């Protein structure tokens, strides 16, 4: 058996690459067996491998950034409810509780213990955004969590390989498109099972002591992150980001304190929690904080638990970044996606070559539900604004950041909802001016073909307050939502009629640096 002292750099690299390949193979299983476009086309999922203490060891290459930090926390909540010594091969656990998971109900988390030689050695974990979770369709205007759909506390979904039929029946009875929801759930279960099998095969093939190896790469990564933090001048750095709210703007106040190889991130001064669904639970707040700092400081070292040990995040209880239950959280990305721009703004003066201006996000989405030709449908699609510029190049147009979701293809949209896409184009000139320009947004126009009224909601922001530039760069253009050519308020759930036309114009990213005179 390989011991920790036998792992030189070459051995670590070879085994590490094999581990990532295992997780990627499991992720491919999830994508190829999924039923919904959300996983298959938008790639709104993640698969991770955890050690015995439910600490991150490896992630799938195609993963939503926030999920990397949340899944280990979810697994630890599962262990709190179902102690490790009570688990057995074939067990599968599930939850979508926002405070234990990714921050909103549509994301279903699946945790599976991995056994080898009769011993629990780790966990495979996955999360996928379900195409529906019941309740009202997702909207920033929702007033409390109970409106947002079915909430699953930590549950044992399968015991020793046998399904708990009651859980499956409850889930099927509470969602609009059960075949897609359950199909994606089975795909997650298959992906988790495959990852466990492949890890066991790797151990048998190499003699790897998995938890020793996990501790080794986590320690190495922590040392690399510590060195990256120490390369930044110590000090206290602050920045504030604002975005459209319900009346008053939403404010994210961010203060970073860098000292002795550690970073403290404090969000005191941010907006209080709201009775609208744009609140962000602490796991999601930490996730996008860690992601931003990882991108800035140590982008080339693969993610694992060691990446984040030197980062400490706090937000006052009762604030929009640490709300009290049962605050609504369904549209939490509309606030959470502001955290990387806030952190980059705080560090813009001290390390300007590593940050970028604010993107034309938060990510946009449009949700459509109804009945057409006697059949129920529920569908949503994503739209991306322009990325912010950097000190070295223009921002990319219509690319998601800080998430990495894909723009939903026209063919997928028209095949899954009763609509016709009449225009999709870049929104030329919508990026902010500067030495380097912000990325352009996009224009998507759809015609409603349904034979009955359609319930519609949006996650759409920066209609009033644009994405700001950095270091003298100009702001991007705000976005716009039009119904039949007239301005339309996207913040509440509403009905639109057959034959109506929706025009969605996503914001441009901020520019970087002043234009030379």
Automatic annotation (TrEMBL):
Domain Hydantoinase B/oxoprolinase: 9-514
Domain of life per record: Bacteria
Signal sequence extent: none
InterPro entries for the chain: Hydantoinase_B, Oxoprolinase-like
Record-given protein name: Hydantoinase B/oxoprolinase family protein
């Amino acid at each position: 058996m390989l011991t920790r002292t036998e792992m030189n750099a070459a051995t670590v690299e070879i085994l590490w690459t094999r581990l990532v390949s295992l997780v990627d193979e499991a992720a491919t299983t999830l994508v190829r067996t999924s039923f919904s476009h959300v996983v298959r086309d938008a790639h709104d999922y993640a698969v991770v491998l955890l050690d015995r203490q439910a600490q991150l060891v490896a992630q799938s290459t195609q993963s939503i950034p926030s999920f990397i930090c949340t899944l280990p926390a979810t697994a630890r909540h599962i262990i709190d409810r179902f102690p490790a010594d009570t688990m057995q091969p074939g067990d599968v656990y599930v939850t979508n509780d926002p405070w234990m998971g990714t921050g909103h109900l549509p994301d279903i988390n699946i945790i599976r213990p991995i056994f080898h030689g009769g011993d629990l050695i780790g966990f495979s974990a996955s999360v996928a955004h379900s195409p529906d979770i019941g309740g009202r369709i997702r909207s920033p205007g929702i007033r409390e969590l109970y409106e947002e759909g079915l909430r699953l506390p930590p549950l044992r979904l399968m015991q020793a390989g046998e399904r708990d039929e009651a859980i499956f029946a409850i889930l099927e009875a509470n969602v609009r498109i059960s075949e897609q929801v359950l199909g994606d759930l089975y795909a997650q279960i298959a992906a988790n099972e495959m990852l466990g099998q492949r890890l066991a095969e790797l151990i048998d093939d190499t003699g790897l002591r998995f938890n020793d190896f996990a501790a080794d790469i986590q320690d190495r990564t922590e040392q690399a992150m510590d060195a990256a933090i120490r390369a930044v001048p110590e000090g206290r750095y602050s920045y504030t980001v604002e975005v459209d709210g319900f009346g008053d703007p939403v404010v994210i106040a961010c203060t970073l304190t860098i000292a002795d190889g550690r970073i403290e991130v404090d969000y005191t001064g941010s907006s209080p929690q709201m009775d609208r669904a744009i609140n962000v639970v602490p796991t999601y707040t930490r996730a996008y904080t860690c992601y931003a700092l990882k991108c800035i400081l140590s982008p080339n070292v693969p993610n694992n638990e060691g990446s984040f040990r030197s980062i400490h995040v706090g937000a006052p209880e009762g604030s929009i970044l640490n709300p009290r239950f049962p605050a609504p959280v369904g549209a939490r990305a509309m606030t959470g996606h502001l955290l990387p721009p806030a952190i980059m703004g705080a560090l813009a003066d001290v390390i300007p070559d590593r940050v970028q201006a604010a993107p034309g996000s938060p990510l946009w989405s449009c949700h459509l539900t109804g009945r057409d030709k006697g059949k129920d449908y529920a569908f949503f699609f994503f739209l991306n604004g322009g990325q912010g510029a950097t000190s070295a190049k223009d921002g990319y147009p219509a690319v998601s950041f800080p998430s990495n979701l894909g723009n939903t293809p026209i063919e997928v949209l028209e095949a899954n909802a009763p609509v016709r896409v009449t225009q999709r184009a870049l929104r030329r000139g919508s990026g902010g001016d500067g030495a380097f320009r912000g990325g352009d947004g996009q224009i998507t126009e759809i015609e409603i073909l349904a034979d009955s009224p359609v319930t519609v909601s949006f996650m759409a922001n920066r209609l009033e307050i644009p994405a700001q530039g950095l270091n003298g760069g100009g702001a991007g253009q705000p976005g716009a939502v039009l119904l039949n050519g007239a301005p339309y308020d996207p913040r509440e759930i509403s009905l639109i009629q057959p034959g109506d036309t929706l025009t969605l114009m996503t914001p441009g990213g901020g520019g970087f640096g002043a234009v030379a005179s």
